[in-house]
Amino acid sequence: MAERLTQLRTKTMQLRTRHDELTMTMEDEPQVPESKTLDQVADAIGDIIRAGNHNQTKALIEALTDKSPSSRPIAWSPYSASPRPRTRSQSAQKKKKPPPKERFVDRLHWWS
């Protein structure tokens, strides 16, 4: 019995030490990557999107999306959404300027 208590005390001390290490690690703020690195990542992502094969594109999407399970199941509806009526004339739609293209690296700055 005394041997088991000694083992448990040792394990408790190890766990407390590990807890303190993890707490200190979490308190450190993450470092922001250099813009050069972010540009390289954005270029690599663009290359995969433009010229990558199916498996590379799939791997990229899986890496960039959250893989955590949702808290509730997805509810599928057998009915499709009906198209919305157009509110503007087509000539007004042609006059509207398209939004500027965003680079993925610009979005990375939002997340930091």
Name the helicity range.
55-70%
Indicate the radius of gyration in whole angstroms.
Answer: 26 Å
pLDDT average, as an integer? 77
Count of helices?
Answer: 5
Biased composition (Basic and acidic residues): 99-112
Region (Disordered): 64-112
Helices and strands in order:
Layout: H1 2-27, H2 35-51, H3 54-64, H4 90-95, H5 104-111
What does this structure look like?
The chain is mostly helical and 112 residues long. The protein has a domain at 39-66. 61% of the residues lie in helices and 0% in strands. It is built from 5 helices and no strands. The longest helix has 26 residues, at 2-27. The protein is elongated and about 85 Å long. The relative contact order is 0.09.
Summarize the structure.
The chain is an all-alpha fold and 112 residues long. It is built from five helices and no strands. The termini are far apart.
